[in-house]
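Discussion board: Methods & Data

I've been asked by a reviewer to show the raw model output for two of the constructs in my manuscript, not just the figures. I'm not sure how much to include, so I'm pasting the format here to get opinions. Each protein appears as its amino acid sequence followed by a line of discrete structure tokens. Is this the kind of thing reviewers expect to see in a supplement, or should I convert it first? Here is construct A:
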Amino acid sequence: MLGRSVHRRAITGCAVLLSGLLIAIMLCSLTVNAEDDATKIGPDQDALAQTVAKGIKYLTDVGQEPDGSFSKFAGTGPTSLAVTGLLRNGAPPTSPAVKKGLEYLKASAQQDGGIYGQKAFTKNYETCAAVMCFEAANQQGEYNGLLKKAEQFLRGMQTVEDSSDFRFGGAGYGGESRPDLSNTAFLIDALKSTGAGADDEAIQQALAFVSRCQNLDSEHNTTPFAGKVNDGGFYYTPILEKPDEEKETANGGLRSYGTMSYSGLKSLIYAGLEKDDPRVKAVQEWISKNYSVESNPGMGNAGLYYYYATFAKAMDVAGQDFIVDDKGVKHDWRKELAEELAKRQKPDGSWINSNEKWLEGDANLVTAYALLSLSYCRVDNK
């Protein structure tokens, strides 16, 4: 009897020990999984791929014309953005849709080196978008000659005569149009894509104009608007041709808004400014206070998808995985942006803005913006 009792106690002890060991293993596993989840960034990559695939299918099956163009009534810009969106999401330059789009753009190259429609008013913007598209497709150097001519054309778009002129370093849509931050940021993007560094003369000249578009009272902005809002964000242009109630403040300042603030941040970084520069710190503070994936801060749903594309690229350029808002909440911007875009996608795979301002009633243009945005949401968590 004594032997049996000892044997029973031994078995019970082993069972308790084994049970404890299993619990410890399970707890360890849960801890490791929790740590893995904590280090992951970005959206579910399978869900992201499905969203992207639907968008690509819309553009290639519905949006593209037989001549390779997308919404050519608006010039070559939508084609360049759509083809770049396809390329950045894995379509090779030899795929039918990309190849046709590139041929259409190549046929739009003009004798002056620009790449734009025949009667284009937006020559700078169209050429910048085309340059970035051809750079994305230029795997074998087949577009080197075309790109070189386009680069020289773009360098001629800047106002560079008088550094005291508020127009200095800026670029507009083309011709005699006033310079603005949107077009200047596109110019910086395009030159950067062709290999221009932070010390490039054109980029440093552009920095002067970019700084004059920031609501920051400093030696870099001596315009009448610098200190009237002084929130660190960016506005469209300091060159006002007529009153704009949508963007002006009650005290005569210019309202900061999302698209321009992220354009400003990206441009400052491309021009070589470090994170401790007062201009960078100021716009980062503005971003913290105005973070949103539901609206274009300061503009509501106007230009929402252009905002998404600019926001995503700027955060990628800045190397930021998270944004901490002014309440201390940490946002995984890739995850939140991708999920917001997935919610807004139409059943046919397209996106469209209910606010048609700045051509965002056009599904091709808006879908191109969405695909460009999503291309910055891919991550490798392995």
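Construct B, same format:
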Amino acid sequence: MTRRWPTTRPAWPSWLSVEANSDHRYDSVIDKALNFVKQLQNGATEGSAEDPRYGGLGYDGKSRPDMSNTQYFLDALQAAGVSKDDPAVKKALIFVSRCQNLPGENNDQPFAKKTSEDDRGGLVYNPLASDSKRDQTPEGGLRSAGAMTYGGLKSFLYAGVSKDDPRVQNALRWIRAHYTLDANPGMGQAGLFYYYHSFAKAMKALGENAFIDSKGGKHNWRRDLFEALKKRQRADGSWINAGDRAFGETDANLATAFGLLALGYCEPTNK
């Protein structure tokens, strides 16, 4: 059966809308969940903003933080309607800024000062990974990665950073230079479906229907994403990532979950 680009608006899941809690029946549950996740943040109750871990989250809370867990933390705060002025959001923004290959007042980490021109503006997975040869660049800095850069762009916007801010502009500069749905830039096929989900959320947050790359190419990003997912879908409807370092995406349950989440952002537009 031939799959076609959808021509009708899909039914959005209820959890994508504030209407899911329009009568405030879940206020208590959401408040408890927010209190729990906020306590997992480095600097939640103590610690100095000078600590490079400040504001970030790791796989078991306050362990080694990374950009991936921190972007999901900001997703949760955004979904719960937390104000951009909330201390947890402001602390997370400090960490996210320190993940960007952009030396200056928002990132004083040593790796940022060794950023190559190609990596400038992109974001790294772990700003504390200066001893990891796998993540290092020839200049001694850290490599920017596609999923982390889209996650960082989205996080900046969720935290209320202006589109005119150098952090947003430089993240967009990197994305324009590395726009692709064939791979996770900087990572190859590693974490490809995670990348698709991060790409979709960031593009939705940016709010541009047509995206212009660094060569002036105009992209309907929704169509590009739909086509990338379509050609990778298996006959039974699932997706898997057979590439090296798939980060669990060899399991069809995980890859398909990311694929479906990304597909939910492929709503057609005539604009």
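Answer (T.O., handling editor elsewhere):
This is acceptable in a supplement if you add a one-line summary per construct. For B, something like: Residues 137 and 170 are 19 Å apart (CA to CA).
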